[in-house]
Design goal:
Layout (H helix, E strand, L loop, with lengths): L2 H5 L9 H10 L1 E5 L4 E3 L7 E7 L2 E7 L2 E8 L5 E3 L18 E4 L3 E7 H11 L1 H70 L5 H20 L5 H17 L5 H10 L4 H8 L7 H39 L6 E4 L1 H11 L7 E6 L7 E4 H19 L3 E10 L2 E8 L29 H12 L3 E7 L2 E9 L7
Parallel strand pairs: 10-12
Antiparallel strand pairs: 1-8, 2-7, 3-6, 3-8, 4-5, 4-7, 9-11, 12-13, 13-15, 14-15
Helix pairs in contact: 3-4, 4-9, 5-9, 6-7, 7-9, 9-10, 10-11, 11-12
């Protein structure tokens, strides 16, 4: 290429005639008649390429895949040995940092990497230091901020999980303490029975009544507060009328177990009058003991559910990539973020026929965390969060929406930009959606989009049903 041809390329338009002549004498034109890999990431950076005609794709290695980052046909774009001017021993400067391939016929102006490095150091020595310093500073800042973002997310999830675990654990501890007192009372009653103060026939009737009370308690519905209070008052009045002391203490326990004044009448007709109060207290102990054991069982079950959600969320003891059910990931994320969704109505619209898909489960859960967490912030403790899954041609669609105020029109185009955030200082780093986009697009070859209007904001994630065919 001649000097005037080089001057038409924006990269060289500000150079002098002598500089352009030096470049023209050392460079050459490369024509490729069909799609070709120009160079591969990690190989020695030998040449500097400037596109003259055609279209190129820039790819970045992610795991075992080369992911297309951008496609362009803009004349004058450059790639290749762009950092060979660095004279330090950093290995990344002397290697291609990505892969570039053509999509069809293309032509390039090529300059040897050694020549490009020389002209940069000789013609722009100050710019070299500035550019390299800016590059390293930006890269380190990005790495540190992403790490901080992950740590902050982990800290928030840990705090929420600790809160969620503390509630059932505290309930189990309280129920265990009360149960210990009731078992002690039962031992005292058993001592009286052992002394033979209750006839055998009466004892048999008490055991039958006890079994009936346990069965009723297990099936008893939870009454509204006003209805339960009304039942307790009626039962306490019945106790007063029949000379049973401390009826106000027994009534709440029996009503909670599904036993009311009608049942008390049935009991009075079954046992001798002198045994009535003892029978009532015996059955009250039994009902309360069953209730406490059910409370402990529920609390321990809740803890087990939370631990299971943590394993599901983090994919502990499982392969990094496997066939996953996105509904399981969404549900475990909802559990992990339960503390932030207090007061929010969660609606689920899952397509139960969807298949499992090949994915990095823990990374997808990070995406669901970012999207649900943002929706929770937008709702501020009131409103509706909607989760939908469906099939869209050969893609699985996951939609996470909220009926919050929406995203302002002027910032919608920037929501996926790194370090951009509309949250107050200290409330967000602006990397949540950037990381989510990288996970969906680069790691899973999918797509993530956003639609937002006041009262309806939706993030749509599309994921392939099958692993991409290797190039």
């Amino acid at each position: 290429m001649g000097v005037e041809d080089l001057r038409t390329l924006f990269l060289f338009e500000g150079l002098t005639d002598d500089q352009l002549a030096w470049i023209a004498a050392r460079g050459w034109e490369l024509r490729l008649p069909e799609p070709t890999m120009l160079f591969a990431e990690g190989a020695a950076a030998e040449n500097f390429y400037v596109l003259l005609e055609g279209e190129i794709q820039l790819l970045k290695r992610t795991g075992e895949d080369d992911v297309v980052i951008t496609t362009t046909s803009h004349r004058g774009v450059y790639a290749g040995a762009v950092r060979v001017f660095v004279t330090t021993d950093r290995p990344d400067a002397s290697l291609y940092g990505n892969t570039v391939r053509t999509t069809g016929p293309a032509s390039f102006f090529v300059l040897a990497g050694t020549d490009f490095g020389w002209l940069m150091r000789e013609w722009f020595p100050m710019a070299i230091h500035l550019l390299d310093g800016l590059y390293l500073g930006w890269r380190n800042l990005q790495l540190q901020t992403r790490q901080r973002e992950r740590l902050e997310a982990l800290g928030g999830l840990s705090a929420g999980l600790a809160h969620e675990l503390n509630n059932p654990a505290g309930a189990a501890v309280r129920a265990t303490g009360t149960l210990r007192e009731r078992v002690s009372g039962m031992r005292h009653k058993l001592g009286l029975l052992a002394e033979g103060r209750v006839p055998a026939a009466a004892l048999q009737r008490l055991v039958t009544l006890q079994d009936d009370a346990v069965e009723r308690s297990a099936k008893a519905p939870r009454l509204p507060a006003l209805e339960a209070a009304d039942q307790e008052d009626k039962l306490a009045d019945w106790f007063d009328a029949h000379g049973v002391a401390g009826g106000w203490d027994l009534a709440p326990v029996l009503v909670a177990g599904g036993l009311d004044a009608v049942w008390a009448e049935e009991l009075a007709a079954t046992v001798e009058p002198q045994l009535l109060e003892g029978a009532l207290r015996w059955i009250a102990y039994t009902v309360e003991t069953e209730t406490l054991m059910a409370e402990i069982e529920h609390a321990v079950g809740r803890i087990s559910t939370l631990v299971g959600a943590v394993k599901q969320y983090s994919y502990l003891d499982q392969a990094p990539e496997q066939d996953v059910d996105v509904r399981d990931g969404l549900e475990s994320t909802l559990i992990m973020l339960g503390h932030k969704l207090s007061g929010v109505e969660v609606r689920r619209d899952y397509d139960e026929s969807l298949p499992r898909i090949p994915a990095y489960g823990s990374e997808l859960n990070q995406v669901w965390t970012n999207l649900i967490d943002n929706a929770a912030d937008a709702l501020g403790g009131r409103g509706t969060l909607t989760l939908r899954t469906s099939l869209e041609e050969d893609m699985l669609l996951v939609e996470i929406g909220d009926d919050g105020p929406g995203i302002p029109r002027e910032v919608r185009k920037r929501v996926f930009d790194a370090f951009f955030t509309t949250k107050a200082v200290g409330k967000g780093s602006g990397l949540g959606l950037d990381i989510s986009q990288r996970i969906v697009v680069q790691r899973h070859h999918g797509d993530i989009r956003m639609e937002s209007h006041p009262g309806d904001t939706r993030f749509q994630v599309r994921l392939p049903l099958h692993r991409p065919t290797a190039a």
